[in-house]
Amino acid sequence: MNILEKLFGSAARVKILKLFLLSPEKVFTPKEASKILKISKNAASKEIRLLVSINFLKKRPNGLVLSPTFSFLLALRTLLISASPVSREKMLKFFKNKGKIKLLVLGGVFTDDFFVDILDGSKRLDLLIAGELKKGAVEKFIRKMEAEVGKELNWTLLGTREFEQRFAMHDKLLRDLFDYPHEFLINKLGVE
After folding, report:
1. Nearest of 97, 99, 96, 120 to residue 108 by alpha carbon
2. Model confidence at 119: pLDDT above 50
């Protein structure tokens, strides 16, 4: 159990808080939340009842949504989102053992600039991977990361040659990542 889980009483509660904070306009049912976050339906329902009772969540006919009038919304968002969503060491360990990876770049949810993305509706990449890797293994790892982060990640896996071609032609997807705060975990291509 990490510090936030101890502070907030349960891993399920932390995951549900993050899910709604990272997707403030999205409506989720308890069943959808439990599936996305890989927690039991009972745990999701219990935590959601508590969060509705304190006005963190609002009931809608088709599910639940973050309450924009929750008193501590900004403070809670700052605390939960600024805490590293996924261990960089864990990502490095996975990717270093999965083929010939040349580039691993974090953006979006992994940066301090993420609040701007939420407010302006940006869909920038959270994760860019370039190299020769097996997509199935990467997808499985990404799903685990999404459950930890509490948000569906915007990510792409490009072959080295495709990345270099797209980078050379100033591809919008790549520019939207590199023109904003980002972090290189692996950079064997010398990208700046």
Report:
1. 120
2. no
